[in-house]
Specification:
By secondary structure, the chain is an alpha/beta fold. It is built from ten helices and seven strands.
């Protein structure tokens, strides 16, 4: 079986035009989400900004655009499975983006330990063979930042049903994420549960509704994180050594 064939035909078709014809509201939502992801990334990485960064599964380039705007990393690289995503990234003409390549979802076209940091932001929940994907990240990078939604809540069937249209096939708690990374030889040095930003909530639910939802989500997480993260969907990140 070729690497390309490891991605099921259904998902090959889904992702081929995933970023074509998106509405302005969807693009805005992705941009707001990317800003929070980069905030979390910079908070997690306290041992200095990386000289270069590979975004694995870069989508249409929202995280890359946010990193480029902040000028935090000098040299950005990207690989993406969707041709429409690669096209969208190239159209951004980001100053710090050195290269973007189409890849098969598993084999990253760079040599061992080529990058100081590899990131996969809201990618792992889409990956059919998670450990193959993570071991390849470990191969090409010295450090890794992984971020996922925590959708393995008490109402897991609802998460599964809602996630189908987006290609979500894996569902995590913080503990299962950390365990998965460890099983691939990634040493998790820090991990954190993170609520959506106020701007994200207000984008989805309006000014008042978003404020109420944000307050509830943040208060619950502060008071009882283990319970809150099983009742409501949050995000989680893990920062790892790959050596």
């Amino acid at each position: 079986m070729s690497d390309r064939e490891m991605l099921g035909r259904h998902y090959q078709d889904l992702y081929a035009g995933y970023y074509s014809g998106e509405s302005s509201a969807t693009r805005r939502k992705r941009g707001i989400s990317a800003a929070l992801s980069v905030d979390c990334m910079m908070d997690a990485i306290r041992d200095g900004a990386p000289a270069d960064l590979l975004d694995v599964g870069a989508g249409d380039g929202n995280v890359l655009a946010e990193l480029d705007a902040r000028k935090w990393v000098a040299s950005l690289y990207a690989v993406e499975i969707s041709p429409s995503g690669v096209e969208a990234i190239r159209k951004r003409s980001l100053a710090s983006l050195c290269e973007v390549q189409l890849f098969d979802g598993y084999k990253i076209p760079y040599p061992d330990k080529r990058f100081e940091l590899a990131v996969a932001v809201h990618v792992l929940e889409h990956v059919e063979h998670e450990r193959l994907f993570l071991r390849e990240i470990r191969r090409v990078a010295r450090r890794a930042y992984i971020e996922v939604p925590l959708e393995h809540v008490f109402r897991i069937q609802r998460s599964i049903d809602n996630g189908k249209k987006f290609g979500h096939i894996n569902f995590y708690t913080r503990e299962t994420l950390v365990g998965l990374l460890g099983s691939c030889g990634l040493e998790v040095t820090s991990s954190r549960i993170v609520p959506s930003s106020l701007s994200y909530e207000q984008h989805l639910s309006g000014r008042v509704g978003g404020l109420v939802k944000s307050l509830i989500r943040r208060s619950a997480l502060a008071a009882a994180p283990a319970i809150a993260s099983r009742l409501m969907v949050y995000n989680a990140y893990a920062y790892c050594n790959c050596d």
